[in-house]
Structure formats: structure tokens, C-alpha cells
């Protein structure tokens, strides 16, 4: 049995935050070399429901909860870490993550977004990105590029079906 096979998936929530133009919030990781960009996401604490976790993570990672939930991807989305990160990333405890993804419409002002309000800073900078640019190669997504290639069609279908504000 390999180390990967002995490890569980970490319960996690993902946040896809759309602005009024249909652009998506993306941010550059503070803790990874190589200018890696991603959507906000974070672990589900023991005893916490995914919907509680997503609001907590949004506040911790981007400093605001000025958003309205517009949808959720059904089921758990699983991904494995690349081999070179097994036993290292996610405190070495997990083989990857099982995620529930939530979609939000941002209801605040860009000035409400503050990346430095929590003791553990996740991101160094952020921007609104047109959905078609996410997979274009303009942003280094690291190993999560494959995750986003699988995830993005579902996210965009949910967004397009959601009532517009």
C-alpha cells in the first residue's frame, strides 16, 4: 500500500465570487513559489457544516462577506495532490481534497476586499478575471489547472442559470 492510499481527503469548501460584470475573483497565493493563482478555498472544521465554513473562509481569506450566495455545485469534488506533494502539502495528512463549491455574487465595493485581516494571510494580491482568461495560460494555476479544467464548466453552467441581480 502506498502512502497516498493510506491518506484521506481533506474536507474543504471552494468559493467562486462573481462581480457585476461576470468576472471571477482570483488571488495570488502568499505561501507558494511560482506566482500561483487560485480561487479562495479552505478546510471545513470539525463539527462545521460546509455552508458555515464557506462564509467563515470568505471572511478569513478576503476580509469580507459582502456577497449573496447564488448557487452550489452538487456533490463533492475530489482531487488528488501531485505525487511530489504527498506527505508534504496539507500538513502531510491528506492525499488531496474533497470540496464543496459555492458561487456568490459580490455585493460590496472592491475596497471591502482586504487580504490582510486574518492572522494567516493566504493571498498577496487579487483581481477580477473574465472566466475565459482563467484557463488561457495568463495565470499560473499550478497543479490546480487540471482541477479548474474539470470544475469550471460546472461553475459557469450554475452561474448562467442563476437569476441575475
Q: What is the gist of this entry?
A:
The chain is an alpha+beta fold and 165 residues long.
What are the main properties of this structure?
8 strands, 3-stranded antiparallel sheet, single chain, 165 residues, 5-stranded mixed sheet, alpha+beta, Nucleoside Triphosphate Pyrophosphohydrolase
What report would you give on this structure?
By secondary structure, this protein is of the alpha+beta class. It has one domain (3-161): Nucleoside Triphosphate Pyrophosphohydrolase. It contains four helices and eight strands. Strands 1, 4, 5, 6 and 7 form a five-stranded mixed beta sheet that branches. A three-stranded antiparallel beta sheet has the order 3-2-8. A hairpin with a 7-residue loop joins β2 (24-29) and β3. The chain is globular. A motif (Nudix box) lies at residues 42-63.
Amino acid at each position: 500500500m502506498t502512502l497516498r492510499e493510506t491518506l484521506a481527503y481533506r474536507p474543504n469548501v471552494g468559493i467562486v465570487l462573481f462581480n457585476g460584470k461576470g468576472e471571477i475573483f482570483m488571488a495570488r497565493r502568499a505561501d507558494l513559489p511560482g506566482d500561483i493563482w487560485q480561487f479562495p478555498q479552505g478546510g471545513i472544521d470539525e463539527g462545521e457544516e460546509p455552508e458555515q465554513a464557506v462564509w467563515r473562509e470568505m471572511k478569513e481569506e478576503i476580509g469580507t462577506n459582502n456577497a449573496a450566495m447564488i448557487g452550489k455545485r452538487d456533490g463533492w469534488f475530489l482531487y488528488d495532490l501531485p505525487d511530489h506533494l504527498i506527505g508534504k502539502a496539507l500538513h502531510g495528512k491528506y492525499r488531496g481534497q474533497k470540496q464543496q463549491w459555492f458561487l456568490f455574487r459580490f455585493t460590496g465595493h472592491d475596497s471591502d476586499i482586504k487580504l490582510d485581516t486574518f492572522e494567516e494571510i493566504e493571498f498577496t494580491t487579487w483581481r477580477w478575471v473574465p472566466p475565459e482568461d482563467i484557463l488561457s495560460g495568463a495565470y499560473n494555476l499550478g497543479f490546480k489547472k487540471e482541477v479548474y479544467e474539470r470544475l469550471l464548466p460546472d461553475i459557469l453552467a450554475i452561474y448562467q442559470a442563476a437569476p441575475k441581480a
